[in-house]
Write the structure tokens for this entry.
Amino acid sequence: EAGVAQSPRYKIIEKRQSVAFWCNPISGHATLYWYQQILGQGPKLLIQFQNNGVVDDSQLPKDRFSAERLKGVDSTLKIQPAKLEDSAVYLCASSVGYGLSQETQYFGPGTRLLVL
Amino acid sequence: AQKITQTQPGMFVQEKEAVTLDCTYDTSDQSYGLFWYKQPSSGEMIFLIYQGSYDEQNATEGRYSLNFQKARKSANLVISASQLGDSAMYFCAMRETPRSKAGTALIFGKGTTLSVSS
């Protein structure tokens, strides 16, 4: 079974530029998560989708970040314009169902973003 | 509010020895799940083990076991017979059972870096 796919793996941009990340979850997984992991910290949720609807985006900086999951499969996370503090690893994860406490989330390899 | 605390920034162990990575959590919920993930330098988060709040037995998965002490709100990871490939960052995480559409994301600790030497 293929895992969670993400691209690109690395991205370097200058501040005020825009950037987009792509995620393809494990086939059949209804729930998709985007996490931000700043160096030296644990991942923090940005947004959660269930099928193609947003479940939780309370920690998404909506003035600059946007995300969509068209057709309930793959997802795109965009930053526009980027700031220096957006330098981080962006992790996509998916889980099979509807978020029971025991449900395992499977993570992709992440995209490392450096904003100069 | 949920909170995960990992007090060991780094741990050092020799091959074939056992090591315990500490994790304490804070929640007012009765139903929750505790997870451990491994993050090698490549960056991917690898699921290791899960413990439910109502599970009476400590979880085990191969060389990984979880020492779950509910009254103390601790969920320590024990790795037996350490291998060089175990060198990585280890994260403890928690998720409560959702009561609404408020979301079911994992709350992570800051992690512990494990270094295994030969």
